[in-house]
Amino acid sequence: MTHTPRSVVIQGTGSYTPGDIQTNDDLAKIVDTSDEWIFxxxxxxxxxxxxxxxxxxxMGATAAAQALERAGVEAxxxxxxxxxxxxxxxxxxxxxxxxxxKLGIPNAVCMDIxxxxxxxIYILEVAAALLQSGRYRHALVVGTEKLSSILDWEDRTxxxxxGDGAGAAVLGVSETPNVGLLDFKLGADGAKGDVLYMPGxxxxxxxxxxSLDRRMHFLKMRGREVFKMAVTVMEKAAKEILEQNxxxxxxxxxxxxxxxNLRIIELLAARLEIPMDRFYLNLEKYGNTSAASIPIALxxxxxxxxxxxxxxxxMVAFGAGLTWGATLVRCP
Length: 332
Ligand code: UT7
Prior knowledge:
Blueprint: E1 7-16, E2 20-23, H1 24-28, H2 35-42, E3 46-49, H3 56-71, E4 80-84, H4 95-103, E5 109-113, H5 119-132, E6 138-146, H6 156-159, E7 164-174, E8 180-188, E9 196-197, H7 209-213, E10 220-221, H8 223-244, E11 252-257, H9 262-272, H10 283-286, H11 293-303, E12 312-319, E13 323-330
Helix pairs in contact: 3-4, 8-9
Oxa(dethia)-CoA binds at residues 33, 37-38, 41-42, 117, 156-157, 160, 221, 223-224, 226-227, 230, 260-261, 288, 319.
């Protein structure tokens, strides 16, 4: 069988963030912190917090419905649903199956992939490869997180950093060469898993009164170590993908980085020698939304007119695992 290389393009995007805004001053009433500390150390002013009754699948389905509408693709035309999340509604069934049902997608292959904050780049690569195989026509990729459900609201070193939300994209194939998702550079280093993890909830530490007492069902992080690794791995992934595609950083119209900390992004910008005004930023409003961070920012950047036809953009992320990933996109 002859293989025709196909371009995989983003046909539409959507995003959703909950209405409840939690400011740094609100947090200062819960833990020993201040707007001044949080803003100067992270660049975050506020984040969105989901209702108790609003789950990752609900937020993901809302973002996905918007992406489908903007793509002009019917639910019946989606044959692949991939969700990136570290806060699934439940261990099983997958959040992808829950979103499939909420959107009335009649028949699709549905799966969750877990790569923490790098999750959206990971699912883009998996979906792109499956679309290129010719066995699928349209993929729905969703990054969705209810991180407020795994935060320790007594730990000021973590609870101030994260927020809830979802972003989605519909991917399809195009016969036009050299457009869409041009290339990927993903990686992982499992030996560094203990810098950012949640010990409880899996088979190693199931929920027991003891595991609850020991606060093991909350996210744990050694922030300073994560910070240093984040800059190193994102710089490496970005430089490698630019080099292997013969792209100079000044050819990039827009960089969409994982929105974790403004100081991490500023260091990355300096190392890549890309001016900060070419980075799309929204972490001031949402904090770190893990797997939802890149797709929310991508959707907002597109809606704001930051990505025009022919533009080259770089998306780059890091997260627990450690994992990282970069992708280069040319707007059709
Ligand atoms: O998607 C991946 C997710 N993770 C990340 O992106 C995290 C990357 N790391 C970071 O963003 C930064 O390391 C943090 C924002 C987490 C921390 O900033 P930092 O400049 O590395 O601060 P630090 O951990 O060195 O702490 C400095 C001080 C400490 O006090 P002492 O020991 O100097 O007295 C902390 O106890 O700040 C204290 N501190 C706080 N003070 C007020 C830590 N958290 C807070 C807080 N409010 N919320």
